[in-house]
Each structure stands twice: as structure tokens, then as C-alpha cells.
């Protein structure tokens, strides 16, 4: 009888501790990112396009929408969350003949990316959180130049060395990162 008492006490105590453990809520967010991987890809492509045509073609007046990102994060009982980013970015640029200066047309396209992610929270307080994350997924890229169209499937990624989140139910967040969400990515997050 006395041998069972410690076992029963441990079971009751652990059950009480697990019952009092608070699980962080699921969160959803919307954000905007600048200096994204698609912008870098398009810049390198422009340089290569100019080089491959012997300098006969140049690209100008390029505009990018920046990354518009929706996210969901699902917590675990540890400091890790799993989730996914859905990012959208579009671009438009004019194509010119270097020799004549004439506009040859307009190139435009978009990147739609679905990127599963995992984040580790270094600091996880009620109103302040610091985290790092990694994400790998796919980007569906489409481009149109005059009557030519091209579609491709690319590897999409995000590497977040540091992310900051401030607030409780509704919070602001910012990430210094590299990838499809941008070098600078910030927005609003709602904890459900």
C-alpha cells in the first residue's frame, strides 16, 4: 500500500502539471516583404539576358509589388511552431533595343509561393517573442513577354535568423530574413 502512494502522488502531480500547461494559440498573419528572392532572380536574369544578346537588349523601368505574405503558425508543446507561408509577388519591366533605343515590349510576371516553415522561439513571453525559422517549398512562376508565355516551378525558401513579435492577441512582427518573403518582412499577427 505504501509503495503505491508515491506512484499515485507522481501521477496526480504530473496530471495537474499537464492540465495547467498553457498551449500557445494558433496564429495567422499578413505581411509585406522587400528585397525578395524573386527580385534578385529577375535582376540576375536581366543581366544574363543582356549578356546573351551581346548587349542588344536592355531592361528598364522595372517595378515589383514586393512580397505580400499570408501565414499560419501552429504551436507545439515545445518552443517550436509549424506552419506555412503563402507569398505573392508581381513584376513588370520594359524591354529596349540598345542600338536603336526603341521599346521592344513589356515583360511581366508573378511568383506565387507555398512554403511550409518551422520556427524556434528563443524568447516566448506573453507580449514579446524572439524566434528563428526555416522554410522550404515551391514557387509557381509565370512570365509573359508580348505573345510569349513561360511557366516554371522553382524551389522557394526563407531563412529567418531573427524575428521579433510584440503584442498579445494582435501583435506586430518583423523579420530579418533571406528568401521569398524578403530581406525585410513585417506585418500583423493575430493569435486565435
Low-confidence stretches: 8-21
* Share of β-strand residues: over 45%
Q: What is the overall silhouette?
A: elongated
Query: Which CATH top level class fits?
Result: Mainly Beta
Arithmetic mean of pLDDT: 88
- The name of the CATH topology is Porin
CATH architecture: Beta Barrel
Number of domains: 1
Helicity range: 10-25%
Main sheet summary: 8 strands, antiparallel, barrel
How many E strands?
9
Question: Termini distance?
Answer: 47 Å
Radius of gyration: 24 Å
Order of helices and strands: HEHEEEEEEEE
- Alpha-beta content class: alpha+beta
- Sheet with the most strands: spatial strand order: 1-3-4-5-6-7-8-9
Tell me the number of helical segments per DSSP (H or I, 4 or more residues long). 2
Description of the structure:
The protein is α+β, with helices and mostly antiparallel strands and 192 residues long. It has one domain (21-191): Beta Barrel (Porin). The chain is built from 2 helices and 9 strands, in the order H-E-H-E-E-E-E-E-E-E-E. It has helices at residues 4-20, 37-52; strands at 27-34, 57-64, 67-75, 80-97, 103-124, 128-145, 148-167, 170-179, 184-191. It has an 8-stranded antiparallel beta barrel with strand order 1-3-4-5-6-7-8-9. A hairpin with a 2-residue loop joins strand 6 and strand 7. The longest helix has 17 residues, at 4-20. The protein is elongated, with a radius of gyration of 24 Å. The model is unreliable at 8-21 (pLDDT under 50).
Amino acid at each position: 500500500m505504501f509503495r503505491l502512494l508515491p506512484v499515485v502522488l507522481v501521477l496526480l502531480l504530473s496530471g495537474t502539471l499537464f492540465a495547467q500547461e498553457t498551449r500557445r494559440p494558433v496564429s495567422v498573419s499578413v505581411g509585406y516583404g522587400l528585397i525578395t528572392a524573386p527580385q534578385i532572380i529577375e535582376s540576375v536574369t536581366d543581366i544574363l539576358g543582356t549578356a546573351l544578346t551581346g548587349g542588344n537588349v536592355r531592361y528598364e523601368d522595372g517595378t515589383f509589388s514586393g512580397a505580400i505574405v499570408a501565414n499560419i503558425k501552429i504551436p507545439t508543446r515545445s518552443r517550436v511552431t509549424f506552419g506555412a507561408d503563402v507569398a505573392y509577388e508581381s513584376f513588370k519591366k520594359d524591354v529596349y533595343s540598345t542600338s536603336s533605343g526603341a521599346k521592344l515590349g513589356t515583360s511581366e510576371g508573378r511568383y506565387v509561393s507555398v512554403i511550409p516553415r518551422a520556427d524556434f522561439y528563443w524568447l516566448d513571453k506573453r507580449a514579446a517573442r524572439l524566434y528563428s525559422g526555416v522554410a522550404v517549398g515551391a514557387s509557381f512562376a509565370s512570365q509573359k513577354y508580348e505573345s510569349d508565355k513561360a511557366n516554371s516551378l522553382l524551389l522557394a525558401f526563407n531563412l529567418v535568423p531573427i524575428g521579433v513579435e510584440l503584442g498579445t492577441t494582435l501583435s506586430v512582427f518583423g523579420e530579418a530574413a533571406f528568401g521569398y518573403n524578403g530581406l525585410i518582412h513585417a506585418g500583423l499577427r493575430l493569435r486565435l
